[in-house]
Amino acid sequence: MAPAQPTPRRNPEEMRQGQLHAYDNRENVLTTIGSGRLTARPPSPEILEQIVEDSMSGSHEATMAYPMESILEDISVEVANINVPTVLLAGELDQVEFNRTTQDRSPGLPSERRVQDHQGERPLDPD
After folding, report:
1. I need a surface site. Which of 34, 73, 87, 96 has the fewest CB within 10 A?
2. Residues 95 and 120 in one domain
3. Could you report the per-residue pLDDT of 70-92, keeping only the tens digit for each?
Protein backbone atom coordinates (compact mmCIF):
# COMPACT_ATOMS: atom_id res chain seq x y z
CA MET A 1 0.00 0.00 0.00
CA ALA A 2 1.44 3.34 -1.00
CA PRO A 3 -0.10 6.78 -0.43
CA ALA A 4 1.08 8.33 -3.69
CA GLN A 5 3.06 7.92 -6.88
CA PRO A 6 6.55 6.41 -6.66
CA THR A 7 8.27 9.54 -7.99
CA PRO A 8 9.14 12.59 -5.88
CA ARG A 9 6.47 15.22 -5.48
CA ARG A 10 7.17 18.84 -4.63
CA ASN A 11 3.99 20.35 -3.21
CA PRO A 12 3.36 24.08 -3.01
CA GLU A 13 4.70 25.48 0.27
CA GLU A 14 1.23 26.12 1.69
CA MET A 15 0.27 22.47 1.12
CA ARG A 16 3.57 21.27 2.58
CA GLN A 17 3.05 23.36 5.71
CA GLY A 18 -0.46 21.92 6.04
CA GLN A 19 0.96 18.41 5.86
CA LEU A 20 3.67 19.23 8.40
CA HIS A 21 1.15 20.55 10.91
CA ALA A 22 -1.93 18.41 10.18
CA TYR A 23 -1.40 16.30 13.30
CA ASP A 24 -0.21 19.01 15.70
CA ASN A 25 -3.53 19.22 17.55
CA ARG A 26 -7.23 18.41 17.32
CA GLU A 27 -8.02 21.73 15.63
CA ASN A 28 -5.54 21.06 12.82
CA VAL A 29 -6.88 17.54 12.28
CA LEU A 30 -10.44 18.91 12.08
CA THR A 31 -9.30 21.64 9.68
CA THR A 32 -7.63 19.04 7.46
CA ILE A 33 -10.73 16.83 7.46
CA GLY A 34 -13.00 19.84 6.92
CA SER A 35 -10.98 21.03 3.92
CA GLY A 36 -12.97 18.74 1.65
CA ARG A 37 -9.78 17.33 0.12
CA LEU A 38 -9.86 14.02 1.97
CA THR A 39 -13.55 13.07 2.02
CA ALA A 40 -16.27 13.36 -0.61
CA ARG A 41 -18.84 14.01 2.11
CA PRO A 42 -18.58 14.96 5.77
CA PRO A 43 -17.95 11.90 7.94
CA SER A 44 -20.46 10.95 10.63
CA PRO A 45 -19.64 12.23 14.13
CA GLU A 46 -18.48 8.74 15.14
CA ILE A 47 -16.18 8.38 12.12
CA LEU A 48 -14.90 11.94 12.60
CA GLU A 49 -13.94 11.16 16.20
CA GLN A 50 -12.20 7.97 15.08
CA ILE A 51 -10.25 9.92 12.43
CA VAL A 52 -9.20 12.50 15.03
CA GLU A 53 -8.21 9.81 17.54
CA ASP A 54 -6.23 7.85 14.95
CA SER A 55 -4.57 10.99 13.60
CA MET A 56 -3.49 12.15 17.05
CA SER A 57 -2.18 8.73 18.13
CA GLY A 58 0.80 8.55 15.77
CA SER A 59 4.29 9.35 16.97
CA HIS A 60 5.88 12.59 15.82
CA GLU A 61 8.40 10.60 13.77
CA ALA A 62 5.63 8.68 12.02
CA THR A 63 3.56 11.76 11.19
CA MET A 64 6.62 13.56 9.81
CA ALA A 65 7.89 10.63 7.71
CA TYR A 66 5.61 11.26 4.73
CA PRO A 67 5.86 15.05 4.34
CA MET A 68 9.56 15.21 5.23
CA GLU A 69 10.95 12.05 3.61
CA SER A 70 8.69 9.62 1.76
CA ILE A 71 7.05 12.18 -0.51
CA LEU A 72 10.51 13.23 -1.73
CA GLU A 73 11.82 9.72 -2.48
CA ASP A 74 12.06 8.26 -5.96
CA ILE A 75 11.27 4.56 -5.73
CA SER A 76 10.17 4.16 -9.35
CA VAL A 77 13.00 1.72 -10.14
CA GLU A 78 12.00 -0.47 -7.19
CA VAL A 79 8.31 -0.38 -8.19
CA ALA A 80 9.17 -2.11 -11.46
CA ASN A 81 10.51 -5.03 -9.37
CA ILE A 82 7.24 -5.62 -7.53
CA ASN A 83 6.23 -9.12 -8.51
CA VAL A 84 2.93 -9.68 -6.72
CA PRO A 85 -0.64 -9.05 -7.88
CA THR A 86 -1.19 -5.33 -7.52
CA VAL A 87 -4.23 -3.12 -7.98
CA LEU A 88 -3.86 0.64 -8.25
CA LEU A 89 -6.88 2.27 -6.60
CA ALA A 90 -7.99 5.80 -7.37
CA GLY A 91 -11.05 7.63 -6.11
CA GLU A 92 -12.99 9.66 -8.67
CA LEU A 93 -13.25 12.65 -6.33
CA ASP A 94 -9.68 12.47 -5.03
CA GLN A 95 -8.46 16.03 -5.56
CA VAL A 96 -4.81 15.12 -5.12
CA GLU A 97 -4.10 11.85 -6.90
CA PHE A 98 -6.97 10.82 -9.20
CA ASN A 99 -6.12 12.61 -12.44
CA ARG A 100 -2.39 12.08 -12.17
CA THR A 101 -2.78 8.43 -11.17
CA THR A 102 -5.29 7.45 -13.81
CA GLN A 103 -3.53 9.34 -16.59
CA ASP A 104 0.02 8.28 -15.76
CA ARG A 105 -0.90 4.87 -14.35
CA SER A 106 1.95 5.53 -11.97
CA PRO A 107 5.42 5.41 -13.52
CA GLY A 108 7.07 2.02 -13.42
CA LEU A 109 3.98 -0.12 -12.85
CA PRO A 110 3.88 -3.01 -15.30
CA SER A 111 1.04 -2.76 -17.81
CA GLU A 112 -0.82 -5.82 -16.50
CA ARG A 113 -1.67 -3.92 -13.36
CA ARG A 114 -4.91 -1.99 -13.49
CA VAL A 115 -6.56 1.08 -12.12
CA GLN A 116 -9.86 0.80 -10.30
CA ASP A 117 -11.80 4.03 -10.28
CA HIS A 118 -13.91 4.21 -7.14
CA GLN A 119 -16.65 6.62 -8.08
CA GLY A 120 -17.42 9.23 -5.48
CA GLU A 121 -14.45 8.31 -3.29
CA ARG A 122 -11.64 10.24 -1.66
CA PRO A 123 -8.80 8.95 0.54
CA LEU A 124 -10.62 8.89 3.89
CA ASP A 125 -14.09 7.84 2.76
CA PRO A 126 -15.05 4.90 5.01
CA ASP A 127 -17.05 2.95 2.39
Report:
1. 87
2. yes
3. 888 998 888 878 777 776 666 66
